[in-house]
Structure formats: structure tokens, C-alpha cells
Amino acid sequence: MKYDPEKHHRRSIRLKIYDYAWEGVYFITLCTEGRICIFGEIIDGEMCLNEIGEIAVVEWEKSQEIRREIELGEWVIMPNHLHGIVIIREPTDSESPSPQETGAGRRGGPPSAQEAKQVEPRQMRSQPKSLSSLMQGYKSATTKRINVARQSWGEEVWQRNYFERVIRNQRELDAIQGYILDNPRRWAEDRENPDRQI
Q1: What residues form DSSP beta bridges with 86?
Q2: How many domains does the chain have?
Q3: Range of the domain at 128
Q4: DSSP state of 18
Q5: Among 140, 166, 137, 191, which Cα is nearest to 14's?
């Protein structure tokens, strides 16, 4: 079917006044295309990775090695999705430009409501050292390696978008960490589980 901008207009699920390069802690969920279970299976409440799942793990761990501004918190690869906590912090490299110089927001995290209104539209697109840049890089790296492994050239691995939530306090962080750690045990009830009994 040919793309028709009138019929196929995609609404962004990103917050329009939020710059995802600001320092902060984020909860992300990334689902496979069609939510197909390609990373392995849950056995007795534990995730058992297959070869494709191992690729997803290696590339996720590599993310914080190649991006100095990224730190990974708790995360889990599930049969058809990834949950993770991502921390974006100011690089410690003295040669790195400050957030003010890059338009990434003020030091210390998200801006006030007044400052948020001043975010330029270009800042809402993918930019270096941002959450969207991390997601694009991860999806691209895993897709290439997975398609080589299963000899499925050009196939989509991930859904086009991803879900994110800004974690605003310790209570939210504790709850999300618990959710991630408990996710394999609760797979039978997981809304991402295609075999879930409703």
C-alpha cells in the first residue's frame, strides 16, 4: 500500500515540550515487530535466551561502552521486548560541550515549565547524546546482526517506535526496578505475551 500522508499520519508519542537529551532517568520498553517472540522463552519464571536474544543482550550492554553519556540501570530481555532503565548524564570529558552549548537543557536535569516552552522543534528530533539517538543506534545494530544470524536480509526486527517514561523520584525508580526484575516470573500475565490467557 502506498504511503498517504492524509491516511497514514503517525502521531509522535514523545512529549512535545521535553528534550530527551536532558540529564535524567528513563524507563524504556522496546517491542519486536508484530510482538513476535524471537529472543527465547520463559521457563520456570526465568528468561532462557536463544542466539538472537544473546545478540540483543550484547548490543544493549555495548550501548554504555560506546556512549559516555549513557548508564544502564536494571534491564531485562523478554521473548519479544526489552525493558530497561536508562540514565543520561553529563559527560565527564572536559572536551565535551556543555548542555547549554548543545541546546540539551540546563545542568542538573529537566527545565522549568517556562524553559520547556522554549525548546526549539529541531531539539525534539533525534540528536546526538539523546534517548532517541540511543534507541536508533541500538535498533540498527541489533537488526543488522540479527538479520545476518537468521539470514533474513532487510526484515524488520523492532517496532518503529518505543515507549518511554521519565522517572521523577526514588519511589518511581524503586517500583520500576522491581517490575523489571519480576517481569520474567510474571510472563503469563504480561500484556506483551501473545499466549496470555485473558
Answers
A1: 26, 72
A2: 1
A3: 24-189
A4: -
A5: 166
Identity of the residue numbered 127: Q
In this predicted structure, the answer to whether residue 187 has a pLDDT above a threshold of 70 is yes
Reported confidence tier of residue 152, pLDDT bands at 50, 70, 90? confident
Q: What φ, ψ does residue 194 adopt, rounded to 5°?
A: -65, -15
Spatial separation of the C-alpha atoms in residues 29 and 100, rounded to whole Å = 29
Cell numbers 500484556 correspond to what residue?
191
Residue 198 cell numbers, joined: 485473558
Query: Residue 36 is placed in which grid cell?
Result: 513476535
C-alpha cell read off for 69: 553519556
Non-local (6+) Cβ contacts of 147 within 8 A are 153, 154, 155, 157
**What's the residue count for the chain?**
198
What is the distance between the terminal CA atoms of the chain, rounded to a whole angstrom?
Answer: 33
In a domain, 7, yes or no: no
The phi, psi pair for 53, rounded to 5°, reads -65, -35
The β-bridge partners of 40 are 49
Mean pLDDT for the stretch of residues 24-47? 96
Number of other residues whose CB lies within 10 A of the CB of residue 196:
11
What secondary structure letter does DSSP report for 89?
-
pLDDT at 198: 65
Query: How far, in Å, CA of 36 to CA of 101, rounded?
Result: 42
pLDDT for position 93: 52
Q: Is residue 4 part of a domain?
A: no
In 3D space, the residue among 95, 129, 115 whose CA is nearest the CA of residue 23 turns out to be 129
CATH number at residue 147: 3.30.70.1290
